[in-house]
Amino acid sequence: MTDPKYFTTNKKREIFELKAELNNEKKEKRKEAGKKVIAAMTVGKDVSSLFPDVVNCMQTDNLELKKLVYHYLMNYDCEDPDPLIRALTVRTMGCIRVDKITEYLCEPLCKCLKDEDPYVWKTAAVCVAKLHDINAQMVEDQGFLDSLRDFIADSNPMVVANAIVALSEISESHQNSNLLDLNSQNINKLLTALNECTEWGQIFILDYDREAQSICEQVTPRLSHANSEVVLSFLELLPKDSDYYNMLLKKLAPPLVTLLSGEPEVQYITLRNINLIVQIRPETLKQEIKAFFVKCNDPIYVKLEKLDIMIRLASQVLAELKEYATEGDVDFVCKAVRAIGQCAIKVEQSAECCTKVNYVVQEAIVVIRDIFRKYPNKYESIIATLCGNLDSLDEPDARAATIWIVGECAERIDNADELLESFLEGFHDESTQVQLTLLTAIVKLFLKKPSETQELVPLTTRYSDNSDLRDRSYIYRCLLSTDPVTAKEIVLSEKPLISEETDLIEPTLLDELICHIGSLASVYHKPPNAFVEGSHGIHRKHLPIHHGSTDAGDSPVGTTTAMNLEQPQVKPSQGDLLGDLLNLDLSSPVNAPQVSSMQMGAVDLQGGGLESLLGSDLGGGIGGSPAVGQSFIPSSVPATFAPSPGPAVVSSGPNDLFEFSTGIGMAPGGYVAPKAVWLPAVKAKGLEISGTFTHLQALQHMTDFAIQFNKNSFGVIPSTPLAIHTPLMPNQSIDVSLPLNTVGPVMKMEPLNNLQGAVKNNLDVFYFSWLIPLNVLFVEDGKMEHQVFLATSKDIPNENELQFQVKECHFNADTVSSKFQNNNVYTIAKRNVEGQDMLYQSLKLTNGIWILAELRIQPGNPNYTLESFPHCVFVKFVKDQMVVDVWLSF
Amino acid sequence: MIGGLFIYNHKGEVLISRVYRDDIGSQAADSAVFSSSGPFLGERLGGVVRRNAVDAFRVNVIHARQQVRSPVTNIARTSFFHVKRSNIWLAAVTKQNVNAAMVFEFLYKMCDVMAAYFGKISEENIKNNFVLIYELLDEILDFGYPQNSETGALKTFITQQGIKSQTKEEQSQITSQVTGQIGWRREGIKYRRNELFLDVLESVNLLMSPQGQVLSAHVSGRVVMKSYLSGMPECKFGMNDKIVIEKQGKGTADETSKSGKQSIAIDDCTFHQCVRLSKFDSERSISFIPPDGEFELMRYRTTKDIILPFRVIPLVREVGRTKLEVKVVIKSNFKPSLLAQKIEVRIPTPLNTSGVQVICMKGKAKYKASENAIVWKIKRMAGMKESQISAEIELLPTNDKKKWARPPISMNFEVPFAPSGLKVRYLKVFEPKLNYSDHDVIKWVRYIGRSGIYETRC
After folding, report:
1. Distance from B86 to chain A by nearest Cα, in Å?
2. Residues of B annotated as binding site?
3. I want to staple B29 with a disulfide (CB 3.0 to 4.6 A). Which of A793, B52, B177, B397 is the partner?
4. A119: closest CA among A88, A146, A94?
């Protein structure tokens, strides 16, 4: 083609000749002819009459000729007057997935994207995605992405839908995953298309739009359109937090139930998804429980799934389960009986009724064991029945369960020894599980009724080849021979209660699955990367990350960084980390692991510390609410204190105040899970901490909160349990006040005001430490006698002294004095030396430590030299002679 | 998205194979074969790579010994979605995390489309129409993404006669119909007689305890419309929806009390895409431009105040170990002037049944050993009647300890009313451009209530 000679022929007979050449037997000739045809076409000659002959040539193994033929085809078909044919061409050509052919695809595709017919557009849109798959660079270079973006505004809904599909497909493998800016304008366009397009198009659009909340309201009517995946797609885009979600879920319940009367396959998909939903919001479908009753001719997979959900919704379904226990399919019956057991554990009243179900004795016994464990000493009446059934048991599970029951209730079964003996006969033929249980049961029996069991005890386990068994029996033997009392304690100890919920999906996985509602992941109950290869679908969804609480978010990052320069103790990267934190929700998860021990929102309330405090806004500040008082630690005057290492530890407090040293609770995805920012607030007496849990990680709800502190310098302990009664939903924050007092055990901490603690919830235990702002520990009787002050100050060794400068304060001595007094810092004396005001102050901490200070104010000079502190630190014995040697404050 | 679509016969032979994505059948399917079926299968396959995915499904699902435990199977990272229609398996294959319900909906739609083109989905029909099927698959799935699958639209340009030469107008009409806002109707339809038929088709489902307590009951209904109307008619459909009735009834309290009784509470409803949802949402009125011919206007589900057309009262008595006495009474519970048809009561019998004696007052009853059931058929039965069957079942003594599961007694019937109580109040037709009015349209309404799963435990 590059050969110029092909372009030169210009005769009338040309077509005829070409025709002959195309049908020539020699390959070479045909190729030549092909080149000529393309050349003719390129210079604008009509060679369309050669169509059948050219197509004939397609059957060749010569790549060059083949390409020429394709090129010819695309050129002619793309100009066909029938849009159906034009579209067909571009569709088919897109499927020829050979890299070398794509260059020929480019031009026709370009034409098709500018076609006049919507049918061609919608096909071309998908073709762009196909092309991207083969040659992404070309799509970029040719500006096809822009064409797609333009299609979003098209009036034809199908064009919009296909453009969206293409964009989302491309974005999966594109470095810029957000190819379409979902601004309100675009969203409106999508919504318009949504109203008009086919059910498939609706799904494409709904799946794409994860900007959820803003459009949820508007797409709710969609629920009334036709098919199931629309409903599920909708579910997927629901916002995952807030009451709004609950409300919408309620609206969704009826359509979901309707899906359950559809085809079995869709029922199954729906049930699998409902299974996820009921794990986070059981209340949504509670009223609909009847919908999950099993029908006789449901396929087995639907039955099993329904059962699973019912267990979760449980309680009034017991009778229903009883019916199932009589069904045919063995798997199903077993599961049904297990379900009854689980119900019994969940609902106390039903336990009684359960124990009467003996249809499938083996399974039932296993269940009964669980019931016994949950409600010991309640249903012993059943034991007799049980013992009657012993012979019929052949499943190891059931045998073991029976033995366990016998051992556990040995004192109530008269012939317990005989029963166990009967099992012993065939000891070596039993499965390990039964052997182990039997061993323990015998020991129990021995401990309970030593007289009867003597002959059983020489256990025959010595010759067993199972090491577990030998070990266990050895331990028992040792225990029994040396210290029967301890043995009793160990063997017959209280058993921990068995938990109510079974088979729950692990929370982090559940969260991920909730994000994937409707997709295959939600059907398999597995994360997508477990069954999808490569990049496809993996980064399809990000767990929303919530950035710090408002407090953290609001803090000026700049200030923090500035502080860092002057405070070597503070991790130098803090500022960066804060930056990372705030950026977290924008960046890909890859970033996250680096922030392993994340410094949570290093809020610099103190940064401006005294400066701002004593600064212009002081008027409203310091005398006012207790909350403001927290920033009232003058120690954070940065200018002067860097050289004095001791106290600096404490003075880093204000910055570290919000620092978290947690590094645990990682999500499998690598997210870091420091969970909380704690903001101390001041109260008149004692410390009040308002805690904000910030969900960085995932969409799991948290319940069962508890808090505990380590021993600390001030004996600060919570005076009431942590009162968080409602589950903490994803992205939700709860303000909790925790009253504290200082009567707990004391241990010196480093730094002194360090408080370590742990918050526990249903997921994990999260450890943290923060520094108590000292000012909250100032007590009201901190006013020292004048004489005592003088005497004490002389006793303070020099090395305990500290000196700071307070900058930019425009107050006179009296104002300062009164402001301090509001915060329990008392002025003992005031002097005027050489035109400077000298304030002598004292304060007392909750643990009885005194701190003395001298404040020097030069009128007119806004920089107070809170200078030389001749008696800054006061040595004091705290409980148990423990010396607190560093004292500080101003 | 869908990577490929295969159709198999019951032997697992591939009848149709259409692959949309390269990922299907490449290395993953290799590992599928090796991981799930061992080397033996790998040997047999060899050769064409793509076949592997196809075969993996046959081996793991169609030929699986165990009953299928899920309609979605993941074999070595390839997911197979399957539905079965008589002896034919349709399987959609994907390697991505797709919208699962969508894939199934697509398969159903595919079945509908094929049925609309060549009737029953059978091996013979598929073999006879395979070119057509490939053509359809090319059109309704592009790169694995479902495209327009409305039979009406497809039939305009996928014909078995080949594409006729069309004028430019015709062509653009086709394309705008396939892609456009009102894809379900083309312009310029003309009928000499404007006529429409409304069928309210309901299936009533019941699960009743032996004591006669309703455990669960619901009606799932469909309003199917056949329209033969000229032009672009604007239709408005009205029924005794409780919410609408109450809204309207506010003015006249009298009417509320009168009609309020007859109104029904709809739990959930879905519409054909021609219905303007925004209007339904705001005014709860159902307005639309109907497709030409037959379509399903809406689906709904109700659970309250259901008229249960029949009550089944079972009595099973075990006489010794080798005999069962069964007595079943059925009572019809509707207006005496109406007639139920095709009544069939199915009383399950134990597996070890050796003989059955049946006496019934009405209709015919037979013990069908192959189905393990006594089937009692009654052609017609008027409302407020009662009929009875009694049977003695003799059992073979067995040493099988497993108790007989006593499956529920099920019933089939057809009644000429809507068990949900739904009534069509009006269907108004406006065609502003053409010369006919609402009064000129001939309208027919018919109610059919059928049994869905109508079971009474015994």
Report:
1. 14
2. 364, 366, 368, 377, 379
3. B52
4. A88
pLDDT of residue A845: 72
Q: Does the distance separating the beta carbons of B142 and A91 come in below 8 Å?
A: yes
Residue A687 and residue A783 in one domain: no
Q: Work out the angle at residue A431's Cα, subtended by the Cα atoms of residues A447 and A486, and round it to the nearest 5 degrees.
A: 20
Q: Which of B72, B142, B179 sits opposite A159 (nearest CB)?
A: B179
Is the C-alpha dihedral spanning B427, B432, B433, B435 positive or negative? positive
Q: Report the gap between the CA of A72 and the closest CA in chain B (Å).
A: 22
Which of these, B132, B120, B206, B194, lies nearest to B412 by C-alpha position? B206
pLDDT category of residue A158 using cuts at 50, 70 and 90 = confident
Contacts of A199 in chain B (CB under 8 A): 105, 273
Cα Rg for chain A, rounded, in angstroms? 39
pLDDT in tens, A679-708: 444 433 444 444 444 444 445 566 677 777
Residues of chain B contacting A123 with CB distance shorter than 8 Å: 142
**Is there a single domain that holds both residue A384 and residue A425?**
yes
Q: How far is A571 from chain B, CA to nearest CA, in Å?
A: 42
> Of residues A230 and A439, which shows the higher confidence score?
A439
Specify the DSSP class assigned to residue A238. Answer: S
Chain B positions touching A524 (Cβ under 8 A) are: 72, 74
CA distance A166 to chain B (A): 10
Q: Is the pLDDT of residue A545 over 80?
A: no
Task: For each of the domains in chain B, give its residue range(s) and CATH number, in order of start.
Answer: 4-27+52-155 (3.30.450.60), 195-247+262-306+418-456 (2.60.40.1170), 310-415 (2.60.40.1170)
Lowest mean pLDDT among A79-83, A140-144, B312-316: A79-83
Residues A809 and A712 placed together within one structural domain of the fold: no
Strand order in the sheet with B72-75: B14-19, B4-8, B88-94, B78-85, B72-75
pLDDT band of residue B241 (cuts 50, 70, 90) is confident
Token pair belonging to A654:
């204000």
Q: Which of A196, A198, A532 is facing B97, going by the closest CB pair?
A: A532
Number of domains making up chain A = 3
- For residues A285 and B117, the answer to whether their CB atoms sit within 8 Å is no
Amino acid of residue B327: K
Instruction: Name B203's bridge partners.
Output: B220, B450
Across the interface, whether the CB atoms of A156 and B179 are under 8 A apart is answered yes
Nearest to A82 among B171, B179, B280 (CB): B171
> Domain range spanning residue A762?
676-723+738-772
Least CB–CB distance from A523: residue in B100, B270, B407:
B100
| This prediction's pTM | 0.56
Quote the CA–CA distance of B284 and B247 in Å, as a whole number: 10
Å between B193 CA and nearest CA of chain A:
30
Chain B environment of A537 (Cβ under 8 Å): 96-97
| Greater model confidence, B197 or A142 | B197
Nearest by CB to B101, which of A158, A257, A266?
A266
Choice between B81 and A356, residue whose per-residue pLDDT is larger: B81
- Listed in sequence order, the residues at least 6 apart from A191 whose beta carbon sits closer than 8 Å to its beta carbon are A215, A218, A219
Q: Which two tokens stand for residue A268?
A: 């199954």
Interface confidence, given as ipTM, is 0.70
Predicted pLDDT of residue A648:
34
Res. B344 pLDDT band, cuts 50 70 90: very high
Best of A259, A318, A532, A538 to mutate (most B CBs within 10 Å, chain B):
A532
- Residues of chain A with pLDDT > 70, as a percent, come to 51
CATH number, domain containing residue A717: 2.60.40.1150
Most A CBs within 10 A among B50, B102, B275, hence the mutation to make, goes to: B102
| Residue A308 φ then ψ, to 5° | -60, -45
Most B CBs within 10 A among A82, A155, A259, hence the mutation to make, goes to A82
Does residue B336 have a pLDDT over 90? yes
